[in-house]
Design goal:
Length: 336
């Protein structure tokens, strides 16, 4: 939960700067009352423009993350070490695509079209999670993405199941169940590698070393530097702050790392008896912002692959639309 001082420094829950005409003021008051009572806002309900805009931004960026996030792991489907691992990986990557589709649908309920959302991704205007701009160099990276990236995603997404916007909250329930399976399969794949040869154990450790800090940055900037957090908290979109989620993730993962037998690459990581949490070292926020700004190791490759996939899939969309039109025509004829 957010601290009291953090909330006190936040703007009021209205989010509307312009003076409101009487009717709008009434709608605003009803909206504020619903939010204060921890109720849900549904697509047909009146909502302030800024609330709608924030949701479109966050939900669409989340959807973009899911579909761009198919690439780093998809890269290993043809090289999975066994048929069992290949089947699991194909299913996982397909799940991520499904998450993207639920989320695009949730964003569309806010009145924005899928074409527009994708155009914003393809032009580089819309963001997606920083974590997917790093390369997957070894098979262990697939396990580490499941364990740490899906693990971080779940930690962030469980509170979103209580988000004030109904369609987003409902989509998150199913997404979290699937992500939970993803996290466990990643951990299990690593456990098997850690029981293997010295080379396999070294491969896991190298992967953890490369991904650990990037996963901590997934939670977003510190609350003090997060422009959207305070307002999103007042609107009941964000239920838990970036820093608290990051800390919860570190606390949970440090114990799991011990079971796995890997070390986390942070010399300052240490249990703090007084705080009841792990202390941890400084995150490189300059590197994070450079990656978010388009200058990470794989940004250009990820976007180019996504744009190409979209163009290559044009015939599928055309065929689906033509089929839907034919079905509609047949139904109309049948009804006539
Ligand atoms: N990467 O003020 P805040 C997954 C941006 S899904 C890139 O704190 P906010 C599943 C932020 O957009 C992973 N940009 O913003 C999977 C904003 O910029 P803007 C995605 C980031 O929205 C697993 C600016 O910084 N999950 O992994 C990042 O209140 C395996 C200021 O930040 C979600 O999207 C970042 N890491 O809080 C798939 C969850 N962090 O928009 C495949 C939903 C911050 O003003 C394989 N989203 N920024 O230009 C959220 O919970 C929030 O949007 C946060 C950011 C917490 C990500």
């Amino acid at each position: 939960m957010y601290t009291q001082s953090f909330l006190q420094s936040a703007p009021a829950a209205t989010g509307a700067a312009a003076p409101l005409v009487a009717q709008d003021a009434q709608k605003q008051a009803a909206f504020d009352a619903r939010i204060s009572a921890d109720g849900r806002i549904e697509p047909q309900d009146w909502m302030p423009a800024a609330y709608r805009k924030t949701l479109v931004r966050q939900i669409s960026q989340h959807a973009h993350s899911e579909i761009v996030g198919m690439q780093p792991e998809g890269n290993w489907i043809t090289r999975a070490p066994s048929l069992k691992r290949k089947c699991i990986l194909i299913a996982k990557v397909q799940d991520e695509c499904g998450h993207g589709l639920y989320l695009y649908s949730a964003a569309e309920t806010l009145g924005v079209g899928r074409d527009q959302l994708l155009a914003d991704l393809h032009s580089g205007k819309a963001k997606y999670s920083s974590i997917f701009n790093y390369p997957t160099l070894s098979w262990a990276d697939v396990g580490v993405i499941g364990w740490l990236v899906d693990g971080a995603a779940i930690m962030n997404q469980i509170p979103l199941c209580r988000c004030s916007y109904g369609p987003y909250a409902r989509a998150m329930i199913r997404v979290c169940k699937e992500e939970s399976f993803h996290q466990r399969q990643g951990f299990e794949a690593l456990l098997v590698l850690m029981q293997g040869t010295a080379e396999q154990r070294a491969m896991v450790q190298d992967s953890v070393n490369r991904f650990w800090w990037k996963c901590l940055a997934m939670f977003g900037p510190p609350d003090a530097d997060s422009p959207h957090s305070a307002q999103a908290a007042h609107w009941g979109i964000k239920r838990v702050g970036n820093d608290e989620l990051r800390q919860k993730f570190i606390d949970a993962t440090a114990a799991q790392a011990q079971v796995l037998g890997v070390s986390l690459p942070d010399p300052e990581l240490k249990w703090n008896e007084v705080r009841g949490h792990y202390d941890y070292g400084a995150i490189d926020w300059d590197e994070f912002w450079a990656t978010v700004g388009g200058n990470g190791p794989c940004n250009k490759e990820r976007l180019a692959t996504r744009v190409k996939a979209h163009h290559d899939g044009q015939w599928v969309r055309d065929a689906a639309l033509a089929h839907a039109r034919k079905v509609q025509q047949r139904q109309r004829k049948g009804a006539a």
